Amino acid sequence: xxxxxxxKLGLSxxxxxxxxxxxxxxxQDLRTITGGFDVGPGGMPGNFNPMTATAGFTWxxxxxxxxxxxxxxxxxxxxxxxxxxxxxxxxxxxxxxxADAKWHDGKPFTADDVRFTFDLARNAASGSNFAARLSxxxxxxxxxxxxxxxxxxxxxxxxxxTITKVMMxxxxxxxxxxxxxxxxxxxxxxxxxxxxxxKFNRYVNGQYVALVANPDYRLGAPKVDRVVNRYFENTAGxxxxxxxxxxxxxxxxxxxxxxxxxxxxxRVIEGNSYVVNYLGFNQEVPLWKDVRVRRAVMHAIDRASIxxxxxxxxxxxxxxxxxxxxxxxxxxxxYAYDPAAARKLLEDAGWAKINGDxxxxxxxxxxxxxxxxxxxxxxxxxxxVGINVVPRxxxxxxxxxxxYAAKPDFNAxxxxxxxxxxxxxxxxxxxxxxxKQIPPAGANIMRVRMPTxxxxxxxxxxxxxxxKRPARYQAVCKAMNEDLPWGTLWVTSRYGVVSNxxxxxxxxxxxxxxxxxxxxxxxALAT
Amino acid sequence: MAxxxxxxxxxxxxxxxxxxxxxxxxxxxxxxxxxxxxxxLWLHFGPNDVDLMARNxxxxxxxxLGTDGVGRDVLARLMQxxxxxxxxxxxxxxxxxxxxxVVGALAAFGDRWADSIAMRCVDxxxxxxxxxxxxxxxSIIGTxxxxxxxxxxxxxxxVLARMVRARLLEVRERDFVIAARGMGAGTLHLxxxxxxxxxIDIMVVYATLQIANxxxxxxxxxxxxxxxxxxxxxxxxxxNAAQSTVVLExxxxxxxxxxxxxxxxxxxxxxxxxxxxxxxDPRSGLN
Amino acid sequence: xxxxxxYIIKRLLAGVAMLLGLSVLVFLLLRAxxxxxxxxxxxxxxxxxxxxxxALRTRFGLDQPLPVQYLAWLRAAITGxxxxxxxxxxxxxxxxxxxxxxxxxxxxGAGITLAVVFGIAGGVLGAVRRNGAVDLLLSxxxxxxxxxxxxxxxxxxxxxxxxxxRLVPSGAMLTPGAPFALGxxxxxxxxxxxxxxxxHTALIMRYTRASMLxxxxxxxxxxxxxxxxxxFSVVARHALRNxxxxxxxxxxxxxxxxxxxxxxxxxxxxWPGMGLLMxxxxxxxxxxxxxxxxxxIGAFVLLLNLLTDLAYAAVDPRIKVG
Lengths: 527, 287, 322
What we know:
Chain A is of the alpha+beta class.
């Protein structure tokens, strides 16, 4: 440490001797945690409005709070601004008992704020992307200042999952903003008020956001004075900042993990990505109608080897949309690597007539070096059995414009390599597989029309008994495994790296960045 | 600048042959080109032969330059990448030379209107921010060799056009050009009889530098996710592997091989270019 | 009115017309590219329904016919309103773009100054000592500089000087959250500026050398030599002035391109300049920001071209403006 300082001073005096300047004192009077909280797929740099966020909740939940949140293990709901909550027997009414919290400006948090927030979030005019998901709410009432009741028109198994992302907003501070101006308002990035352990301090466009401690936080004053979220254009920059000690935390790509594992100054956090990667067979092109062709693809790809080598073991093979033990029944076909069987299946299906060795575009939006390695491996393995795929790596908007087009050119995406969120709530993949979700209704972009799969999903979604739900999703899994609407590949791990200077730090690579019970007020810096 | 006979040509070649740097350039470039073109004959690995059990292997007896992240032979990819990168470079530079010279020369030799229009075109092309041009062209025409050639050519011609114009504006005032114009010489005659010889040094220097630039631009396009998309090989997208710090630190052969080859190629092309310029410059013989 | 002033006014008017052309061109190019701001907003692994997306398109006005969208933009732009970013919470475009010009000018100014000084000095030295040891060494260095991809030198430089040696910070322009200090700024500036200057130095050096050699052979220089003018004086007074003509063009174009930002260096070092702004805007298909940035950059480049042409007239009396 001292040597570094000396070197730094040496260089700077060299640099600055001409101008007679010196570096500012590096010692900060304030205890500051600096991190790359919006790096990676869970981040959404530059977004401050939780109602339009599709990610970035790790950071947002440092100053905003939802009523309930996921536990840090992402396996159950825990209260945050609601001390506790009950559901009525018919599952159409939820009662939240509110914590005794205060907004950052000192005003009390009440049931009025809950009503205000839900009314705003379910109003599409506010630009909220929760409008569709909260459309089942018929009304929010406030029997007293510390109790809020949300009424639904029908039971909704995904309701609690949805509201973990609905951050409570201050009615008194936002009431003056017309609803239509909420989505695009300077309030979010200049003076937002939450109830969380940190208060918004300042945003420097494209560079960083700084928060300061909220000493009045109801669960205890934070252990540090400030938290700074630095933005990085690419992860290489974040990795460099981590290793040079400028930041104490960042998401990293799995390629970079071995370096940090070997370094005792860092701790690597590994977690489930909750995204199942699959090969999507476009059912509108004549290539994949025969289930034997789809089975051949599964047998042709040596998933075990790819996981072992390219992913360094940090992925679970997926034989259906799920890998969580609760949703995976016994007796699934494991589709072991067997090129001979794959060739036989293709021959039986008449692949020479269906396509032969004509090139098939495999389009993906995953554009990391690791993903291009995976593409190369899949291309080589499929070539071995006589399926000639040509990977095409594009950026996210190009991918979405291709697959979501109002009048899609199906020949532009006969095969996709993609991912869809499969947890913690297992209903997430319904939108991509249920026949009722074929666009424009939903996002079944591969136009999967498989009655067994659709009916299994419908049964699972309609199940009101939480205890019976896992069995319903096991049926979904079974149907997916048999009919192969997708060639399911794996669920990978995601990583965060934390400096050992950071104590009592909770982070999980949750989809969209959470939220989850992170207790930022406990985060501390070693002295 | 009398009628060209075999004489000056032979003399130019003679001058070229006595330039050691230029010969050294040829001695590097020709074997390299030969190796790149004929690599399937002497290398038994293909550029897309994946071997997951032999990934990230350092250079050794089996893989002379080691293997990459999926066990592909780096040498094979280097050769295949060379085909791609050199093709992109040569095509795009030819294209931008043609556009740049014609526009620049027309501006210099034409009347005020021609000059004005040509230069405003140049200005417009130069005012368009490259990132936008890069992204949009790459996305409209797709990624791959053809689009990359167009993107690079369209990005680079305006600089040349301005330089050609600057040079020829000065030439225009010389006696022999004024005489030619006075005798009613056509535009084509002016362009190729007086314009080309007097701008050739700029164009050769530009072309040699731009070949390198084109290879680099292709690499940069790959870095931004445009350019030649993997798993096809190009020197640019091979170097892109250095984005991962593990590759940058521990698997140096994966990015240093294309990097070193690129530098060597550029060096050779530049030596040859310098030699050519000296050889074809009629004044240099008087030294 | 003196002819120079008339000329300048004429060029400025032409510039306005060109900016109009530029805005049409950029607008059309953007709409031709696949994917719109809404496509960029969807996280493919957390799918949204096409109905939600249609609602978003309506809110952004993307469902209007193209001419209507362009005219709406133009009408606002004439009054100085370049609209709002479609990312995040929607910053106003004009202040957003202007706030990124300063950092880019700083980085580019530092990088190009280094490049001009070392490039011209090296080029002249190489030409005068043609084919000598110094010339050879400079040539090799120049070729190395020219042939290293900017993103690779940036990555290697970042790794060596920020991660391994820890001499300089790894990125950004100022230490986040710290009060402004000039020393802090310079510490963040030095590495990207030096890395940026490498390619430009090499390029300027090569052109200066080639141009110098050309001029040293010209009749008037030889006449000067024959008249017994001292070699230093030949180089400095007669040759350099004329040799710099094409180099001035090159520097002019370099600066012109520079305002667009050093895309690679800025994105590796997270330098908050135009390059970074454009890359993120393009990735998000943030139409208003791209249009606004193109307009501002275009205006800047046109102004610079005018200045370059005036500079010509200043260094070469044979060229008249107008």
